[in-house]
């Protein structure tokens, strides 16, 4: 594998809803170059609820196209693609992170004794043990989903207009309920890549650190684009 700085490649689901700054699919969310490639037919329902079966080869092809365009690391626009993390990483040959949930083991190690991360997800019913196991995470991690008939689902699968206030209220409510049910939660990991615009509000409301696809993407890409440091020249005596 040749590791060179370039851009972060983002493999996108086949969606059309609005993606404001903070969303994985908005170039302004990132502090370095990014490139996008959409997988035709990769609907939210197919990836989230049907496991993305039959789409893995298409995701690999999209990843290879991004690499050919200079991308040195790859992520995806849906946390449920964690199911195929190993296949994607083996096929693409550059650092790949299919889901923000891959941060769970590291976050758990970073927390104090007795504390655990908790997950806010787009669809709790579909977030089974196999997804966590594919990330190397403990399947017993506490999880709370946004409501099936709520603002997130209306936006992503119902073609509703982007309602920042309603979306923020919904995800904060989910986070509060998660912590109320599991007082030992010491950090939040957002599975859904459309939730980072609300990470600051969640952190402020719960006084907890929040991890998401942006924190993962920054970590992953900077591994292939290390900073350059220049030693200051000593002044002549």
TrEMBL record:
InterPro entries: Asp/Glu_race, Iso_Racemase_Enz_sf
Highest taxon of the lineage: Bacteria
Molecular function in Gene Ontology: racemase and epimerase activity, acting on amino acids and derivatives
Matches recorded under NCBIfam families: PRK07475.1
Protein name: Aspartate/glutamate racemase family protein
Organism whose genome encodes this protein: Rhizobium hainanense
């Amino acid at each position: 594998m040749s590791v060179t700085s370039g851009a972060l490649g983002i493999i996108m689901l086949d969606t059309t809803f609005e993606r404001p700054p903070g969303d994985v699919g908005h170039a302004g969310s990132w502090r370095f170059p990014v490139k996008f490639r959409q997988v035709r037919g990769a609907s939210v329902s197919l990836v989230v609820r049907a496991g993305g079966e039959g789409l893995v080869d298409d995701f690999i092809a999209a990843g290879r196209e991004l690499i050919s365009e200079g991308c040195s690391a790859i992520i995806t626009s849906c946390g449920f693609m964690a199911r195929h993390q190993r296949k994607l990483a083996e096929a693409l040959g550059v650092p790949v992170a299919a889901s923000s949930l891959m941060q769970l083991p590291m976050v758990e190690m970073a927390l104090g004794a007795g504390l655990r991360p908790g997950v806010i997800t787009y669809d709790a019913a579909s977030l089974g043990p196999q997804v966590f196991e594919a990330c190397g995470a403990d399947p017993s991690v506490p999880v709370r989903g946004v409501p099936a008939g709520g603002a997130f689902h209306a936006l992503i699968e119902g073609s509703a207009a982007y309602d920042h206030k309603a979306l923020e209220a919904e995800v904060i409510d989910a986070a509060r309920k998660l912590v109320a049910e599991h007082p030992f939660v010491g950090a939040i990991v957002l599975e859904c890549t459309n939730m980072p615009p609300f990470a600051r509000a969640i952190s402020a409301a719960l006084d907890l650190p929040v991890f998401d696809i942006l924190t993962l993407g920054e970590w992953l890409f900077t591994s292939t684009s290390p900073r350059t440091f220049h030693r200051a020249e000593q002044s002549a005596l």
